[in-house]
Amino acid sequence: MMVHLCPAGSEGASYAMFTTVNNSAYTLSAAISTVMLGIWDVSKETLMSGDVSGMTKLTILTTFIQVSGVLFVKLLPRTKEDLASLHADQYSGSKVGGQAGQESLDEERNARNTTYV
Fold it and tell me: Which helix (H) or strand (E) segment is 31 a member of?
């Protein structure tokens, strides 16, 4: 699906962007999970005493958060034609993002075409 969203000629830049967002999500999730440990008492002493209620609540919360992404699946286009109609919409895309992408492609082309003396 992502291939059809990428403008022609900038597939590599789009892949790099998707990879960067994905990797950033991993880093952010580690920071958020550390903060979430403070919601309920899940210290070693509490768990060793036999009180696992905090761990149970934390497990239920994190499981719900992970599964909540399924709620957004219905927002995805069902067919290639639906995707094409979304892409052709006048409000689709970003003029600023498109311009920035085009400028970076132009700079790359100019760097390759420059002859060094």
Answer: helix 11-36
